[in-house]
TrEMBL record, chain A:
GO molecular function: ABC-type transporter activity; ATP binding; ATP hydrolysis activity
The protein, known as: sn-glycerol-3-phosphate ABC transporter ATP-binding protein UgpC
UniProt superkingdom: Bacteria
Compartment(s): Cell inner membrane
Lineage: Bacteria, Pseudomonadati, Pseudomonadota, Alphaproteobacteria, Hyphomicrobiales
SUPFAM superfamilies referenced in this protein's UniProt entry, alphabetically: MOP-like (SSF50331), P-loop containing nucleoside triphosphate hydrolases (SSF52540)
Membrane topology according to the record: Peripheral membrane protein
Family classification: Belongs to the ABC transporter superfamily.
Domain ABC transporter: 4-234
UniProtKB/TrEMBL annotation, chain B:
Keyword Transferase: no
Residue stretches making up the ABC transmembrane type-1 domain: 71-283
Upper taxonomic lineage: Bacteria, Pseudomonadati, Pseudomonadota, Alphaproteobacteria, Hyphomicrobiales
SUPFAM superfamilies in UniProt: MetI-like
Protein name: sn-glycerol-3-phosphate transport system permease protein UgpE
Coiled coil (residue ranges): none
Annotated source species: Xaviernesmea rhizosphaerae
Length: 372, 296
């Protein structure tokens, strides 16, 4: 089928550069999700693969053929747009079958394939309707049917679920995933919703400001974020990131001192950013661990998140529903050593030596109380 | 400032009624006069009651002005203007809105400027061109080869001459442009992904979507074309190309000192008014929709 190779691709609009050299490989049949904040260039990259946007520099190859100069129709891609972009004056059947009509497929065969496709996306009863007479979810299906019918090698989705309500989004997510398994095309899915990204992706690409921050399996990225940007962007509530310095083979977080493994001896004197996810912070006995002043508590139903302030820096922790915490009250947190992340403060890149976690397990089991 | 007092209400109604009478008054005179006898139409004061002579008057007018022939001329001219304009404007707007070219702005402003120069303003130079189409080419050929050619090529007394200068203006272009710009970019992109080229996109998407616009423009252009007077007057010297508007003059009562038969003139003008009124009546529903809103 079709592997997508993106080599040193750049995009400029006039003088402003939007993509600063992107290198990616999407293997055949994978479901790739591109995740990033608004304006980071996700859509631009997708549209360059589709052929809707010119490639300023670099090369994109689909199935081994460089497609820089090819028209969209020659690239074997199909695309689902955020606002669906259905043809308003055509019936559902004509919408789905338009690509076949353009390529001159005889009427009888066209009808057969439209009916087949409509059955897959569950639109058999709506073939004669106009898009205006459909619900959002049904329009979404029409858009998918229209993309599917050509049996494309590559499926491109640009935030296709963002106009749907939360419940429908979950069920459409499952459908898209099922569809992908059935079609076995290479799928590229753009979103800024991390839940969507985590649940759909075989391979997740995190982008920021026109650069790729990290590529990998969703869980890998969650457990080992390559930079402070990824660490803060993935996971909700966001990871706590606290600035510190390596002194005497340990980092100090407020009142807690965490010894580092010997392998990190080279970091002595460096400024670092220490990260820990709120859901991995535990409450500790008063007077031990990291002490912070509670600011406010966020109710999530299943649990709650306490937002506290530690030496002027915000610090969040997920706690059970049974604990009562009043604003202004000091709380002690236990930071399980195996869940700490260490980042270079200047570059924001993850510090990892030979895959070894940052802190020494033995030493970190107990947190030394503050000296001051 | 919106006031709702009985006095303000009465005043606004009074103004509206006066305005209405001013508009409808002449029309009533035409309808009443066209169906009266010569004595009735010349009676003082004028009576606004229609008579029973309309058919006789209309027949007299029809033969006096040779209206049958002129009606056909007018119809041909009007239809050419209408369809020429509807088609040309759609193409121009398509080019302006959907294509990026370095000269895009130049083209846009060229088209835009024609809005400020209606035919009435540039009637003399336009006439000069229409009367001698070959001169620019003659000058070019002479400049490059030194050969002086004498070829007569003009558009006088032809349907092309009657219609072309009226087709090439921008009003319709902007109506389409406004509508095309409301279409989401993704529509064109989706069509491109489906393999449709620009021409196909134009015929499969844009034209069906602009149906109300097309009908609105048809209405406007039909009335506009039918009512042309100045331009045909200049272009036509051969009576077989005369349009109904030019015939209106011949419908005036003969100046032989006898009682003027205004009833015949009025019946004739009523006949001449009829085709555009019919077109507007049939298309007015679309007309309003096309100008006011764009269908989803
Ligand atoms: N036609 C254009 N001309 C100039 N700049 C553009 C153009 N299209 C996009 N940009 C810029 O390129 C950057 C990336 O845009 P892009 O649409 O790829 O963002 P995105 O990641 O898809 O964001 P979102 O999540 O909001 O859709 C933005 O800063 C945007 O302003
Ligand atoms: Mg986008």
């Amino acid at each position: 089928m079709a592997q997508i190779d993106i080599r040193a691709v750049r995009k400029s609009y006039g003088k402003t550069q939007t993509l600063h050299g992107v290198d990616l490989i999407f293997p055949t049949g994978e479901f790739v999700v591109i995740l990033g904040p608004s304006g980071c260039g996700k859509s631009t990259l997708l549209r360059m693969i589709a052929g809707l946007e010119e490639i300023t520099a670099g090369e994109i190859a689909i199935g081994g053929t460089v497609v820089n100069k090819l028209e969209p129709r020659e690239r074997g891609c199909a695309m689902v747009f955020q606002n669906y972009a259905l043809y308003p004056h055509m019936s559902v059947a004509d919408n789905i079958g338009y690509a076949l009509k353009v390529s001159g497929v005889p009427k009888a065969e066209r009808r057969r394939r439209v009916e087949e496709t409509a059955a897959i996306v569950g639109l058999t009863d709506y073939l004669d309707r106009r898009p205006a007479a459909l619900s959002g979810g049904q329009r979404q299906r029409v858009a998918m049917g229209r993309a599917m019918i050509r049996e494309p090698k590559v499926f491109l989705f640009d935030e296709p679920l963002s106009n749907l309500d939360a419940k429908l989004r979950v069920s459409m997510r499952a459908e898209i995933r099922k569809l992908h398994q059935r079609l076995n095309a290479t799928s590229v899915f753009v979103t800024h919703d991390q839940v969507e990204a985590m649940t759909l992706a075989d391979r997740l690409v995190v982008m920021n400001k026109g650069r790729v921050e990290q590529v990998g399996q969703p869980l890998d990225i969650y457990h080992r974020p390559a930079s402070t940007f990824v660490a803060a962007f993935i996971g909700s509530p966001a990871m706590n990131l606290i600035d510190s310095r390596v002194e005497g083979g340990a980092v100090r977080l407020g009142s807690a001192v965490i010894p580092l493994a010997p392998a990190f001896a080279g970091l002595e004197g460096r400024t670092v950013t220490v990260g820990i996810r709120p859901e991995q912070v535990r409450l500790a006995a008063p007077g031990t661990g990291l002490v912070a002043i509670a600011d406010f508590v966020e109710e999530l139903g299943a649990g709650r998140v306490v937002h506290a302030v530690m030496e002027g820096q915000p610090f969040a922790a997920a706690i059970g529903a049974e604990v009562r915490i009043a604003p202004g009250q000091p709380i002690a947190f236990d930071l399980p050593a195996e869940h700490l992340h260490l980042f270079d403060r200047e570059t924001g890149r993850r510090i990892e030596i030979d895959g070894e976690p940052a802190q020494s397990r033995a030493a970190a089991a107990t947190l030394a109380p503050a000296l001051s | 400032m919106i006031q709702r007092t009985p006095f303000a209400n009465a005043l606004t109604y009074a103004i509206m009624v006066i305005g209405f009478l001013l508009l409808i008054g002449p029309f009533l005179v035409v309808i009443a006069g066209a169906s009266q006898t010569m004595q009735q139409v010349n009676a003082v004061p004028f009576r606004f009651v229609p008579g029973d002579q309309f058919l006789a008057n209309a027949t007299a007018a029809w033969t006096r002005g040779d209206l049958g022939h002129a009606m056909i001329n007018s119809l041909i001219m009007t239809l050419m203007i209408t369809f020429g304009k509807v088609a040309l404007s759609a193409c121009t707007a398509f080019a302006i809105v959907f294509f990026r070219s370095p000269l895009k702005h130049l083209f846009f402003w060229t088209v835009f400027i024609t809005l400020m120069l209606p035919l009435e303003v540039r009637v003399v130079p336009t006439y000069a061109v229409a009367a001698d189409m070959f001169t620019p080419f003659r000058l070019l050929i002479q400049f490059f080869t030194g050969i002086e050619l004498k070829i007569e090529w003009n558009l006088l007394n032809s349907y092309a001459g009657l219609t072309l200068p009226l087709i090439a203006t921008a009003t319709g272009t902007f109506l389409y442009r406004q509508f095309f710009m409301t279409l989401p970019d993704e529509l064109a992109e989706a069509a491109r992904m489906d393999g449709s080229g620009p021409v196909r996109f134009f015929f499969d998407m844009l034209l069906p979507l602009s149906r109300t616009n097309i009908l609105a423009l048809t209405t406007i252009m039909f009335v506009y074309g039918w009512n042309q007077y100045l331009w045909p007057l200049l272009m036509v010297t051969d009576p077989s190309y005369q349009t109904v508007m030019m015939k209106l003059r011949m419908l005036l009562p003969p100046e032989d000192g006898g009682t003027p038969d205004w009833n015949v003139t009025l019946a004739g003008s009523l006949l001449i008014m009829l085709p555009p009124v019919l077109v507007v009546a049939v298309l007015q529903r679309w007309f309003v929709r096309g100008l006011v809103s764009s269908e989803k």
